[in-house]
Specification:
single chain, 63 residues
């Protein structure tokens, strides 16, 4: 990078090329993240309860 002014001009040109998502796209993305996070949380809750159940059975067996 030899010319800082040229670099700044190129950065400014690039900022005008940015296409920002629309409000609808942003909301859909947020809803999808919330929905998938909820599904993952429920899945891991169920998995944790199943594993806890089996672990309790194993640990309560008296030899």
């Amino acid at each position: 990078m030899k010319n800082p002014l040229k670099f700044i001009q190129e950065v400014k040109q690039e900022t005008f090329r940015i296409t920002w998502p629309t409000k609808k796209e942003t909301m859909m993305g947020a809803v999808m993240v919330f929905a998938l996070s909820t599904i993952a949380a429920i899945f891991f809750l169920i998995l944790d309860q199943i594993l806890r159940f089996f672990l309790n059975i194993i640990l309560t067996i008296n030899f």
